[in-house]
Design goal:
There is one protein chain. The chain is of the alpha/beta class. 33% of the residues lie in helices and 32% in strands. It contains ten helices and 14 strands. The chain has a six-stranded mixed β-sheet, with helices on both faces. A four-stranded antiparallel β-sheet has the order 2-1-4-5, covered by helices on one side. It is globular. It starts with a strand and ends in an 8-residue tail after the last helix. The site of adenosine-5'-diphosphate has 11 residues, from strand 2 and helix 1.
Length: 293
């Protein structure tokens, strides 16, 4: 059974490409990451899936419902967290939560209180007076309080501090273990790597790779920066090698042992190994023109 199924889904804003021929399936109960840099089309896909945008071509089914025809039924069963949250001016958090629960024709008081407590959000505060992070928390509670069977989260961690991000993902994992499907968009590779079982990578409106996260990221190189000198040109797995005044920077996807041996044979004072950003993954693991993993 699919939570999400699209076939050739396309959305153009006039002449501007939003998404192009996206065919995607997400199984019920999956924890699915939708990755891509800014402008790739993540929000467009999500808003089309929710029936908030009318597709230019193709079709989409969410929880077995046709998104164009059954939008209202769908919104009752889905929790949606938009990338940018907007509330009516002058509202308190609790009013916004009640309004959102009312739209779903549910009394979600207990779950709302539990979520506010976990996220450290005071429901009596005026939303206009909240920090960006607290406004995000209010939006999270709105999306989760009715315990939907499908969570669609657009760049959910923007604005949350690292501690809250951890708490938020803990909540998502519990929901997932209880059977909910989680579909989240992100431009942060580590976020998807840590939590998602499956993922798709979007670039310029199209999916360039999809599958199990462990397969998608197996090829992912590390970004390495060294201070000092070592013979790296001929080392297999070194790409994008750039000499810097202090040493060198490169992407590395070879064996750790081989890298350490090459560095040990040189004269290295310092070494930093970090996660590649998404752009690195696109350019060096999936090729400039894209292609399947
Ligand atoms: P992402 O969520 O991955 O950052 P978006 O879906 O927001 O990407 O945007 C995909 C493309 O669609 C971008 O080129 C963006 O400029 C364009 N786009 C998004 N929303 C609109 C809009 N309302 N009108 C015109 N173009 C838009």
């Amino acid at each position: 059974m699919y939570a999400i199924k699209t076939e050739g889904l396309t959305k153009y804003y006039g002449k501007t490409r939003g998404i192009e021929r996206i065919s995607l399936t997400v199984e019920r109960g999956d924890f699915f990451g939708f990755m891509g840099p800014n402008g790739a089309g993540k929000s467009t896909l999500i808003r089309t899936l929710l029936g908030l945008l009318r597709p230019t071509g193709g079709r989409a089914e969410v929880l077995g419902l046709d998104v164009a025809r059954d939008r209202e039924k769908l919104l009752e069963r889905v929790g949606y967290l938009p990338a940018e949250t907007a509330f009516w001016p002058g509202m308190r958090v609790r009013d916004a939560l009640r309004l959102s629960a009312g739209l779903r024709r549910r009394d979600c008081g207990r779950e709302a209180r539990r979520l506010c407590e976990r996220l450290g959000l005071d429901p009596s505060r005026k939303i206009d007076e909240l920090s960006l992070g607290s406004r995000k928390k209010a939006a999270i509670v709105c999306a989760l309080q009715h315990e939907p069977e499908l969570l669609i989260l657009d760049e959910p961690t923007g604005g949350l501090d690292p501690l809250m991000q951890r708490e938020f993902f803990a909540i998502l994992r519990q929901r997932s273990e209880a059977g909910a499907t989680v579909f989240l968009s992100s431009h942060i590779l580590s976020e998807v790597q840590r939590s998602c079982a499956h993922a798709a990578i979007l670039r310029d409106g199209s999916i360039v790779a999809s599958g199990a996260v462990k397969d998608l990221t197996r090829a992912a190189a590390r970004r390495v920066s060294v201070r000092g000198r070592a013979a790296l040109d001929a080392l297999p797995g070194v790409r994008d090698l750039r000499q810097t005044p202090e040493g060198a920077e490169f992407l590395y996807s070879g064996q750790t042992r081989a890298l350490l041996a090459a560095l040990a044979a040189g004269d290295i004072q310092d070494l930093t190994v970090s996660e590649p950003d998404l752009e690195d993954v696109f350019l060096h693991c999936y090729g400039k023109g894209g292609g399947q993993a």
